[in-house]
Amino acid sequence: MAAEIVNPRSDSERRNGHTEQGDGAEPLDSFDPAFALHRGGKMAVQATVPIRDKDDLSLAYTPGVAKVCSAIAEQPELVHDYTWKSQVVAVVTDGTAVLGLGDIGPEASLPVMEGKAILFKQFGGVDAVPIALNCTDVDEIVETVVRLAPSFGGVNLEDISAPRCFEIEKRLQERLDIPVFHDDQHGTAVVTLAALRNAARLSGRALGDLRAVISGAGAAGVAIAKMLIEAGVGDVAVADRKGVVSRDREDLTPIKAELASFTNKVGLSGSLESALAGADVFIGVSGGTVPEAAVASMAEGAFVFAMANPDPEVHPEVAHKYAAVVATGRSDFPNQINNVLAFPGIFAGALQVRASRITEGMKLAAAEALASVVGDDLAADYVIPSPFDERVAPAVTAAVAAAARAEGVARR
């Protein structure tokens, strides 16, 4: 069993010391409880075996450890059984797209990466190690992660800016035989699809009946578009700052040109607002504000998923005037689209079967399992379960493991 990520310090121990705003200033802990919680970090490593005497020491370290090393050298696959490798994930960032803070650098990203690691443990029973890299070059990131990979069973890419994140993930998937998952893309897409499945079920519509408009053509927007099309949504149009991504635009990056090739079947052009006229679904992953008139122009019984934080693209009070189902990225409104519903169970399932990669089928299975947790309690204010629903992680884990076996990427 992997070492448990814990923070054994008491509140009083965390508050010792002085993290100050400047010479003579009061500690930041005095002004904001977030600083008190973060003092000393949010995690530590705890051994899972005792070292009580020389016999324990001789087994845990030399000479006993040499037997295990020699066995692994002869049969490399034994590393999964006799180390923590198959139960631990590297949470890797370069600090270029951290939450809504942007490019704040590797050191400033660490509180978020620690937070991600404890969410892995809390919600999926998966150990994770935060790794903030002091480089932003694609080649350097790929080479660094490849060299670190022997220590880990999976890699969770986090808060790496687009479009670099697409190439980094693709190249790592090609070079590594362990799951590589960019959560900003795929975690968001899985939870969005799960909520959309239930919204459609609530309204008696099939996914194929829906026309969706996505605001934002970055990492999350592209991944959501791909997953919705894969799941059978009727049509998806994606808008960036210059308007709807369409085949007739001459300013598209390679990623957006690919996006145009499989979205926007009806050939929309122009602004996001014009695309929303008659649309069944709005999905916001870009920030900004959508005018109320544009929301009012959507189809009757529309769904509005305004997921920008802290300010949704459409405030729920406005969205509820016109939409049958409203979701946001915030925890203080119903139907929170929260990645923590997906990534812990996805990795737990992949690690359980020692999957070599995470496939589209595994992600679709995760979304379907997540949606199924809601069950007969489905309502307009409950199309997605809470992160604290204890059924979530086991359901996603089981579905992902089964899909990995079905798709031939499981190794046990």
Describe the protein's architecture and organization.
With 412 residues, the chain is α/β, with parallel strands linked by helices. Helices cover 42% and strands 13% of the residues. It contains 17 helices and twelve strands. The strands form three sheets. A six-stranded mixed sheet has the order 9-8-7-10-11-12. It has a four-stranded parallel sheet with strand order 4-3-5-6. Strands 1-2 form a two-stranded antiparallel ribbon. The N terminus is likely disordered.
The structural class is alpha/beta
* Computed Rg: 23 Å
Binned, the helix content reads 40-55%
Query: SSE order in H/E notation?
Result: EHHEHHHEHEHEHEHEHEEHHEHEHEHHH
Shape: globular
Alpha carbon gap, first and last residue? 17 Å
Number of helices: 17
Strand content: 5-15%
Overall pLDDT, averaged? 93
Highlighted features:
412 residues, alpha/beta, 4-stranded parallel beta sheet, 12 strands, 42% helix
Set down the secondary structure blueprint.
Blueprint: E1 4-6, H1 11-15, H2 33-38, E2 44-46, H3 54-60, H4 64-74, H5 79-82, E3 88-93, H6 106-124, E4 127-132, H7 138-148, E5 154-157, H8 164-175, E6 180-182, H9 183-203, E7 211-215, H10 219-231, E8 235-240, E9 243-244, H11 254-262, H12 272-276, E10 281-284, H13 292-296, E11 302-306, H14 316-322, E12 323-328, H15 343-352, H16 360-374, H17 392-406
Parallel strand pairs: 3-4, 3-5, 5-6, 7-8, 7-10, 10-11, 11-12
Antiparallel strand pairs: 1-2, 8-9
Helix pairs in contact: 6-15, 7-8, 9-10, 9-16, 10-11, 15-17, 16-17
